[in-house]
Amino acid sequence: xxxxxxxxxxxxxxxxxxxxxxxxxxxxxxxxxxxxxxxxxxxxxxxxxxxxxxxxxxxxxxxxxxxxxxxxxxxxxxxxxxxxxxxxxxxxxxxxxxxxxxxxxxxxxxxxxxxxxxxxxxxxxxxxxxxxxxxxxxxxxxxxxxxxxxxxxxxxxxxxxxxxxxxxxxxxxxxxxxxxxxxxxxxxxxxxxxxxxxxxxxxxxxxxxxxxxxxxxxxxxxxx
Length: 224
What we know:
Elements: H1 2-35, H2 50-74, H3 77-103, H4 105-127, H5 135-143, E1 163-164, E2 167-171, H6 176-186, H7 188-219
Helix pairs in contact: 1-2, 1-7, 2-3, 3-7
């Protein structure tokens, strides 16, 4: 019984932490949506700009962690099985995405590169009539890069987000897509370890929830 209590409160604590993280991501998404006008850097995924992506990820994390927290705290079988099913679906989706990325890596790189060029051209056209920042500015400031491969892709419309701080006459020499690919390649092991850790956490969470579910089922408490 003491082990089950420990399991129960461990689930509550971990899910509470994830709930806080999810709420922070959700809040950041709302802040970005209300503070600036954003347009996607990938036209084929127009709705998936940075703000919307953070908003959706935040909702998923908060909903799943809330189910796990409340299900463990109240020992509710319905919430626990819902938590298990959602985690299982998320893990399957993650594995499917990982397999697709491995199998079609070159094709995906070509498609992204082509789509980025279209998105950059759309941004250039908008900048002719507006000074509002978009996703390109956010990415370039965050990763200290400019354009897709280099700053020349902006032609005569190089944004201020490309400027090196303290040296306004010079732009970041490396393109964002090139830099992100280099960073990913250099940290491939860390990315792999991170994915494995996430999967382990999800598997443990599913095991914990199912253990509690079976205990409640044997105790005859039924669905609450």
